[in-house]
Structure formats: structure tokens, C-alpha cells
Amino acid sequence: MKESHSRSIAKGVSWRVLGTLDTTAIAWLVTGSPLKALSIGGIEVFTKIFLYYFHERIWQRVKWGKPRQTHQTHQTNQTPQTHQTIQTLQTNQTPQTPTHIHPTFDQMLSRDERQQFLRQKSKVIWLTGLSGSGKSTIGHALERKLMENGYFAQMLDGDNIRSGINSNLGFSLEDRQENIRRIAEVAKLYCHSGVVTICTFISPTREIRQYAKDIIGAEDFIEVYVNAPLEVCEERDVKGLYQKARKGEIKEFTGIDSPYEAPEHPALELNTAEEPLETSVEKLFNYLQPHIRS
Q1: What average pLDDT does the chain have?
Q2: In which element (H, E) is residue 168 found?
Q3: For 140-176, what is each residue's pLDDT tens digit?
């Protein structure tokens, strides 16, 4: 850590007091004259303070011998823990703004200005449910329906995100947490830009979804439960993921060896096992309109 100028001066003064006493004592022994010894000591105290100050400032710029700062990363091979693990992660992930960073949010276009330009109100629609429940299918259809009705929307899909910005993450509880943290921050940026943002993520636990809600903001977070029984999801599984999970080829797969906690009070529930896609999309679109209409 770089020291302040005042600290360097204080250190210089304290050091020179000791140094001057030593120099005066030696000069007295060599010259045998207390007056000469005090004169020598009195002169050198001023010159040595400035020399020490500049010496210190120069060494502050020298990187040799300083320990390197390292950043902690998530381990992808850890076993999922209890909810206490999530609380610990939330505490450890509290952002610390470096002293040399100077955000300029106050100079950017405001959210209201962007919403007025787009003639809509932005929200984040968070679709959660088992793999195969229909989240992505509904999300794509909703995105298109919104655009056809004059709304500007952007869909953020789980598989797409994991093939790009989150390609370095696995499926441990810690990595699922980081996956949601990153995408919630992205969704928040879209929302601030006035965009109706559709997120389709399994987000298996209530705490993980609450974590996303806290980042995005409760007033902008619309939780939609895409409900379909596990057996229906397995029948729809064109990717063969459930089959691989049951064979042990995929570990920590939600619904098989990793739990899914259904929302207790979602804004809307879509039962895709009992109603066709068009009905689910129309129901969701009608629910959203009062929230996003300018």
C-alpha cells in the first residue's frame, strides 16, 4: 500500500531524532568539543530529513520485493453445502470499489430518459423451473410477442450464458451462485437501459433466486414459475440430459441428484404440462403489460 506524504515526513523526523543524537555523540567523541558536536548534529538533522523523505518516495515506486496481490477464485470441484454456504458467499462477494476507480453513473443517461425514448417501462422477468419445463421456449416466444407489440426486449438464456460469459463455471453450489450473480448484474444493466429483460434460468433454490432479486431490485424482479412435473420434463428431454444424469454421467443435475425448490409465492405460475405454449405465452404477456406499458 502506498504511504501518504505526511506519513513519510513523520517517519523521517522520528528517524532523524535518533540519528542526530547518535551523530552528535560521535562528533563529541571525535572532536572533544560539545559545541562543535551540537553544530554538526544541528546541521545534519535538516539535510538528512529531506534526503530520507526523497529516499522513501523513490522506494515506493520500486516494485521489486513487494508481495503480489492475488484474487480468490471459486473452486469448481467443491461439494454443494447447506444454505449457510450461500450466506457465506454473499458476504464474501460484497463488492469493494478500488480507491482508483471513479464511477460516473451520475453523468450517464438516466433510466427514465431511456424508458421515455423506448416508450416502455423496463422489468426483469425471471423464469425458473426444471430443465425441460419450457422456460427457454416460453422466453423466446415472449420475446418475439413483445417485439411484435412494440416493446423492446432481450432474452438471457441459461445455456447461452454458460457458453459465453460464464463458460468457466461448473455446477457446484458455489458456481451456481456465481452464475446467478453475474447474470443478475447483466440483467440489472439491461433493466437500467430501459429494456424488458427475460431471464430463463433453473436457479434451483429460493435463496439463489432471492440473491438475484436483491441484486436486481425487488421492484423490478418478476418471478415466474414454469411448472412441469419431473416425469414430463424427462419425456421432453431431447438433449438426453436426464438420462445421462440417471446413469451418473452428469453430476449434481437439478431434479436428479440436486434439489429444486419451487417458488412459494411467484408473481405468476405457468403449468406447461396442462396448457399449450400459446396459452402460457399469452397469459404471461397479459400479466406483464400493465407493468411495462409506458
Answers
A1: 82
A2: none
A3: 999 999 999 999 999 999 888 888 888 888 877 788 8
Would you state the CATH architecture of domain 111-292?
A: 3-Layer(aba) Sandwich (3.40)
What is the residue extent of each domain of the chain?
5-60, 111-292
Q: Which of 133, 172, 203, 280 is catalytic?
A: 203
CA angle 79, 238, 230 (to 5 degrees): 55
Whether 203 is catalytic is yes
pLDDT confidence tier of residue 95, bands split at 50, 70 and 90: low
User: What is the average pLDDT across 165-189?
Assistant: 89
- Angle among Cα 123, 126, 130 to the nearest 5 degrees reads 170
CA distances to 155, 196, 205, 256, 283 from 208, in Å: 20, 22, 5, 18, 26
Answer with the residue of higher pLDDT: 123 or 60.
Answer: 123
Name every residue whose Cβ is closer than 8 Å to that of residue 116 and which is 6 or more positions away in sequence: 294
pLDDT score at 12: 64
Distance CA 199, CA 194 (A): 15
Residue 4, burial from CB neighbour count under 10 angstroms (0-12, 13-18, 19+): exposed
Task: Check: pTM over 0.70? Answer yes or no.
Answer: no
Rg (CA), the chain: 31
CA atoms of 288 and 269, how far apart (whole Å): 13
> In this structure, how many other beta carbons lie within 10 angstroms of the beta carbon of residue 195?
21
